[in-house]
Amino acid sequence: MNSDSLTSLSLHDRAIVIDGHSDILVSIADGLTRLNQQLPLPDYRTWRIASQTAEQPAQNTTGQFVMSAHTEYFGSAGLYSLPQLRQGGATVQVMAIYLDDKHLDRALQRGLEMTWWLHKETEDNPDFELVTQVDQIFRLKKEGKVGGVLSFEGFEPLGPDLGFLDLYYKLGLRMASLTHNRRNLFADGPQYGVKTGGLTALGKQAIRRMNELGIVVDLVHISETGFWEILELTQSPVVISHTSAFAFCRNRDEYPPHPGFDLRYDRPKLEAIARNKGVLGVIFFDQINLDAVIANIETLLDVVGPDAIGLGSDFYGMEFCPPGLEDISKLPRLTERLLKRGHAEVTILKILGGNFVRVFEQVWKK
Predict the structure, then answer these.
(1) Fold entry, domain 3-363
(2) Are 356 and 310 in contact (CB under 8 A)?
(3) Model-level pTM?
(4) pLDDT tens digit sequence for 294-315
(5) Which residues pair with residue 66 across a beta bridge?
């Protein structure tokens, strides 16, 4: 190991590392894995489920674009676990409640099941905690433990009743987006190719209540109109938990594969997040390779500066993991590459987690 690697490992070891998005709770609630298990994954290029006789991939339930049967089945399983989080030097992993279409007729129950599983993981793993206070983050870092932050990727888990937001808050919810692409009772998602609106009256009430409770507003997967309406309404810094420039993703010429931006049109939105003192979590999903993730970070550094950038991995499916950054355990490679590119240590520390900590300090209630 050369001196540069030792320097980057030392820097990474000092950092509070926060990843702004994962769907690992889906895999846990589906019974595929547990957080203390590093699930070995079969090769996605040859794996077939027993009932699948043809090699035709399945349609993603979000309706966005086609994923392999392997990705549809395993999702985030095998890409996040406590062993991998510790190896990656992660201090906090944000864990989202996302509901597939098949669960919408029992949305509240499914959301509570996923919340129960997160609490179960904290009970069964002494070195893992549900994080609801900023001081926990600093203590976990000092003790070498890992924390999980509960988030929503869409407000469907509330059912039709905004009052359940308070219940989820008591159960640990500290970050939430109103939508995940599709329209719901609170707002419109982007629904590419469909004319969309913004927030409903209930959605506006939700933003106000999130501010009152101290829940970070996540603008990921929201429509254009909804984006600007939320920024006008909110009294607190916001985040986009996982996003990147479409130019660096592998499937950029197909249907948009992830929540991203096009600098030809979306620069004002990025600048608005920076003015809000918010954070943009750089996504790893579907990026060409590790260099593409670095290019995303450097693009955002030019547009919004070092105080508005974080990590938002969203590992989902082996086929969409960037070479060089194949799962959450590989995070130290990101630090090493940023350091080699000449970025200041203070900038790297902000990107790795310092900026998310600042937003949590400003939003979460003590």
Answers:
(1) TIM Barrel (3.20.20)
(2) yes
(3) 0.95
(4) 999 999 999 999 999 999 999 9
(5) 59
